[in-house]
Amino acid sequence: MTTSQLDAGPALDPADPLAAGFRDAVADVLDGFLDGQRDVLAAIDPSLAPLHEQARALVAGGKRVRPAGCVWGYVAAAGLPGADDRGPLLGAAASLDLLHVSALVHDDVMDGSDLRRGRPSAHRQFEQLHDDHGLIGDPEVFGRAAAILYGDLLLIWSSELLHRSGLPPAALARALPLVEAMRTEVTAGQYLDILAQSRPVTEQDLATAIEAAERVVEYKSARYTIRRPCQIGASLGGGSESLITMLAEYGSALGRAFQLRDDLLGVYGDEQLTGKPAGDDLREGKRTVLVAHALAAAEPVARKAIRDLFGRPDLDREQVDRLRTLITGTGARDQVESMIESSHADARAALAALPGSEITDEGRLALDTLATLATHRTH
After folding, report:
1. Does 208 have pLDDT greater than 70?
2. What is the pTM of this model?
3. Rounded distance, CA 187 to CA 60, Å?
């Protein structure tokens, strides 16, 4: 990563907070940083090259929602950054995407997912490397172990990129407690997720299952997707306590809506757009809010049918369609859509309630637009 790459930056447009130019600028920062890490790995051993190659490919996709939250949270506090501030801000924002892809790698290992962003998931690629190089032992064990270490490396690199971004020490000191909270929260949320998936559905009180699913949404997704990135950006920009507090309310509401949309796409989405096989969440037995509400609302016969199919890794397309129909028939799909709209409205209301003395016009416009882009999407 060079100073020139960072300083170029995008033309930030509050009316288009996820513009292609912005996403490309984040990609440039990540590519430059990772190319520097390639040389670090090569100096250790040439056989580490796949770690760099996989990282380069994985960061090439994505919606850049977390970097956007950071940048527009900053703008909400301090206005559009000048040339000297833009590079360090982009570096800090891009570091959140490395944290994100680290979580994706580990998530795919835990879920046994075959695809990520239209490509074989990391552990599957390492399995293939094992076969291609004629290594001994179980390729699946090797693939999982390698992917865990690879995800750890991405987490380490996210911290390194943040600290090397060029931020003033005082600004970094303001943001670090929020970054640390974000790392803890998403890891705790992941654990709560696998814990929920490990509990037999038949032994759970259905109301408790809904509460557990909503708690996972808050900590595994809402805080680390929207709330903390926005607060981190605002803290970098020297935002007021009122702004930071508002962004907590805005971010959690919008983050919930974002994840609930993901839950619907994981069941009903077009795999050509989502990059994952249709119905994978059903095969993996993900205890989403959608599924929790479906089980709570289903009649006994339908509930048994959902339980019999849900979480079976060998579900064929016909069975996936059957399970979708059962879930839709409980009214859970419509209920989750209503929850998305309600959370979207809550996020916008929190934003609108903050007086103009506490937030810039550009920041308010960008965050309001981001709320719609993050919830009304097809992938």
Report:
1. yes
2. 0.93
3. 24
